[in-house]
Amino acid sequence: MSYTGPDFDPPPERRSRRGPLTVALAALVCGGLLGWGVYAATGGTDDKGAGAKAEGSPSAAPRTPSPAASSPAGSASPSAEDGTSPAARTPSASAPAAAGPLKGKVVVIDPGHNPTNAEHTAEINRQVDVGTHRKECDTTGTSTDDGYAEAEFTLDVAHRMRALLQRQGATVKLTQDRDRPFGPCVDERARIGNAAKADAVVSIHADGSGAGNRGFHVILPGPVNAGEADTRAIVGPSRALGERIAGNFVRVTGTAPSNYIGGGTGLVTRKDLGGLNLSTVPKVFIECGNMRDSKDAALLTSGAWRQKAAQGISEGIVSFLRG
Ligand SMILES: [Zn+2]
């Protein structure tokens, strides 16, 4: 793997006991989401199961109207495909939560890395305590071969998720929004979710693995009790959150779980990530795809696909929070 960031050290070999059916079952279970009426009403999931799309060119996706584009709110226009962030036309982070099924719920979105981390190598290389060990504050993240940075991808997906979740009534906070020169450090990223007393936290990433390695995976916290880290109380709910996200991600994006990690389940457990180890609230990471694979890169660089990714993750969160 070309990716050497501290939060994405080559994960320990682990064979999951779960089979591919897990995700398929989760997709079925979560398929009948209540309270996501906008998408159901507008046929937003018409293209669910279009697994072939993952194999097609990116031009296949943009021609499909995004669910949000056809929603009454119309917050995402077809121009989303141009790759521009929808942030400017979405509610701000400080906007009052709308009435909706998630009213009173707090969701923290953690866009992995930071677009200007590379200009602050001394700061991000500072060691921080993650309970089990010390590691770098943060990393630059990976990029596609054409130079689309993971840190831009994570912010774009986070903005799209924020709009979707605020529309459901949730209070949404981002750990960073291009509003600081670097970081936050991985320990602070965890503490932001803790301080917000978040009901769910999702850290957004894209992987930097070898060409041919494809698909998404959700990273769950393993049981850790060392130093400041004690994940024992969040392992269970985090798994529930991760399973809902994986199932909905498959259903909405039509893309398959990772073919290189997780044994086909789309789920991986790790105990070396500070962002998970130090969390006291349900939290998972998602690697939405592999930026170093050309076919995955075609998806990750598509605004239409990112909208689906944001929708899949968000619907997983909604499903988890509604129980
Ligand atoms: Zn990352």
TrEMBL record:
<keyword id="KW-0812">Transmembrane</keyword>
<feature type="region of interest" description="Disordered">
    <location>
        <begin position="41"/>
        <end position="100"/>
    </location>
</feature>
<feature type="transmembrane region" description="Helical">
    <location>
        <begin position="21"/>
        <end position="39"/>
    </location>
</feature>
<keyword id="KW-1133">Transmembrane helix</keyword>
<dbReference type="InterPro" id="IPR002508">
    <property type="entry name" value="MurNAc-LAA_cat"/>
</dbReference>
<feature type="domain" description="MurNAc-LAA">
    <location>
        <begin position="190"/>
        <end position="318"/>
    </location>
</feature>
<keyword id="KW-0472">Membrane</keyword>
<keyword id="KW-0378">Hydrolase</keyword>
<dbReference type="Pfam" id="PF01520">
    <property type="entry name" value="Amidase_3"/>
</dbReference>
<protein>
    <submittedName>
        <fullName>N-acetylmuramoyl-L-alanine amidase</fullName>
    </submittedName>
</protein>
<dbReference type="InterPro" id="IPR050695">
    <property type="entry name" value="N-acetylmuramoyl_amidase_3"/>
</dbReference>
<feature type="compositionally biased region" description="Low complexity">
    <location>
        <begin position="51"/>
        <end position="99"/>
    </location>
</feature>
